[in-house]
């Protein structure tokens, strides 16, 4: 008669070996789950957050007319937390999907089927004035001021009869915030510059019928963004010294021809004053190559990092990107990234080669082949070009210290 294996208990978390996920134990009796947790202490979560934000930015629907992503949900605490994080932290609009697997517990079934109250509203307007310049390149300047007020209320913990009871640590919290924002922009309308020095030397004049709006470009010559949140839960949470005002975030960007600059600062309202500063610059040469560099200092974690990159795009079908992220505090490169993309003129497939050397995950090498068809390729190409433009903002924008 075969006896079941003897049940062992982790020397640290006391979790039994008879678990849904097989556990292994080291010579000290520590389970594989605890060892995996110890490894998370060596991960730069700020850098991971920035890498995630860089990915999701290109998929956000700017006018909120459609969903940004899809989240599979089961009614358990994992999918609840994923939904909470995507909406509240990444500011995305997810479509929640599920299927009946015939194995739901009654609690999960109720959680999945119930409706969660989530109220959000935004009041936004803008005023502008257009100035006729009629310069050599710049024809018009539009001064745009856009104030915004948003209110978000989601009483998660107030619906105790409907919400699942977790273990107190993983439970979701309610959200009640009032946010304001002010955007001040100078938008330039300028005649399109020659693509390359060879084009500038060309004596071929465009035909009159070819002179249209396509011969003009629009860009933010100067832009100032101010945003801040007010947390009602913090105000009425019972603390003797509540701090309901979150950091005031200021972003100033400037673009002059092919040169751009970006400065950011976070201001604390309760004594620390400036908690983070970031300065960067970028340049795009006549051959479409992009050069960028950014320095970030965070007072909260006392970190100093500098990151930069070069993108070679002078060959239409071949693109190269190099990115480095260096920490002054640790005197090491946090990551080195090399990327190559081959886009043949047939526009039916693309080859991607990535080499990454990161301090937390080591070296990785990936080769990807994408098949592209018709209009789908055009939309992907558009996303790629928009991504290049956003890269001139130099990795920052969300308050982290690494790209």
Oligomer: single chain
**Number of separate helices:** 7
For the largest beta-sheet, the strand count, sense and barrel status come to: 14 strands, antiparallel
Distance between the termini: 59 Å
Total separate domains: 4
Order of helices and strands: HHEHEHEEEEHEHEEEEEEEEEH
Highest CATH level, the class of the largest domain: Mainly Beta
Summarize the amount of helix as a percent range. Answer: 10-25%
**Broad shape:** globular
Low-confidence stretches: 157-171, 195-204, 208-213, 374-403
Q: What is the C-alpha radius of gyration, as a whole number of Å?
A: 26 Å
Structure summary, number of beta strands: 16
Structural class: alpha+beta
Mean pLDDT, to the nearest integer, reads 77
The CATH topology of the largest domain turns out to be Porin
CATH architecture of the largest domain: Beta Barrel
Portion of residues in beta strands equals: 35-45%
Account of the 3D structure:
This protein has helices at 32-40, 45-57, 77-88, 106-113, 197-201, 232-235, 374-391; strands spanning 69-72, 94-97, 119-124, 127-132, 138-154, 175-191, 216-231, 248-256, 259-267, 274-284, 290-298, 303-315, 318-327, 332-342, 349-358, 362-371. It is of the alpha+beta class and 403 residues long. The chain has 4 domains: 1-41, no CATH class; 44-110, no CATH class; 115-246, no CATH class; 263-403, Porin. The strands form 2 sheets. Strands 3, 4, 5, 6, 7, 8, 9, 10, 11, 12, 13, 14, 15 and 16 form a 14-stranded antiparallel β-sheet that branches. It has a two-stranded parallel sheet with strand order 1-2. The protein is globular, with a radius of gyration of 26 Å. The relative contact order is 0.09. Residues 157-171, 195-204, 208-213 and 374-403 have low confidence and may be disordered.
């Amino acid at each position: 008669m075969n006896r079941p294996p003897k049940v062992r208990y982790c020397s640290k978390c006391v979790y039994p070996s008879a678990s849904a996920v097989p556990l292994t134990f080291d010579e000290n009796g520590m389970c594989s789950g605890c060892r995996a947790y110890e490894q998370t202490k060596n991960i730069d979560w700020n850098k991971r957050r920035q890498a995630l934000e860089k990915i999701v930015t290109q998929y956000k629907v700017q006018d909120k007319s459609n969903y940004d992503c899809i989240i599979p949900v089961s009614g358990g605490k994992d999918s609840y937390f994923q939904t909470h994080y995507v909406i509240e932290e990444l500011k995305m609009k997810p479509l929640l999907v599920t299927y009946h697997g015939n194995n739901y517990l009654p609690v999960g079934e109720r959680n999945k089927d119930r409706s969660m109250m989530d109220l959000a509203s935004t009041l936004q307007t803008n005023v502008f004035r257009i100035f006729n310049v009629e310069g050599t390149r710049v024809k018009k300047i539009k001064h745009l001021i856009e104030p915004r007020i948003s209110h978000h209320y989601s009483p998660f913990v107030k619906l105790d009869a409907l919400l699942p009871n977790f273990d107190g640590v993983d439970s979701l919290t309610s959200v009640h915030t009032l946010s304001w924002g002010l955007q001040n922009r100078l938008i330039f309308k300028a005649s399109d510059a020659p693509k390359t020095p060879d084009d500038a030397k060309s004596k071929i004049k465009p035909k009159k019928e070819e002179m249209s709006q396509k011969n003009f470009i629009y860009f933010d010559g100067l832009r100032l963004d101010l945003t801040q949140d007010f947390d009602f839960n913090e105000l009425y949470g019972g603390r003797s010294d509540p701090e309901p005002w979150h950091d005031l975030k200021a972003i100033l960007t400037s673009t002059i021809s092919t040169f751009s600059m970006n400065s950011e600062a976070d201001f604390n309202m309760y004594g620390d004053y400036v908690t983070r500063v970031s300065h960067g610059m970028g340049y795009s040469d006549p051959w479409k190559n992009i050069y960028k560099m950014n320095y970030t200092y965070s007072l909260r974690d006392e970190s100093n990092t500098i990151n930069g990159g070069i993108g070679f795009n002078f060959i239409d079908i071949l693109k190269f990107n190099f990115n480095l992220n260096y920490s002054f505090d640790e005197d090491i490169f946090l990551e080195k990234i090399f990327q190559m993309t081959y886009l043949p003129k047939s526009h039916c497939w693309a080859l991607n080669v990535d080499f990454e050397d990161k301090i937390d995950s080591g070296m990785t090498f990936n080769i990807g082949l994408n098949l592209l068809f018709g209009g789908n390729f055009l939309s992907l190409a558009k996303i790629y070009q928009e991504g290049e433009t956003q890269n001139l903002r130099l990795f920052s924008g969300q308050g982290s210290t690494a790209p």
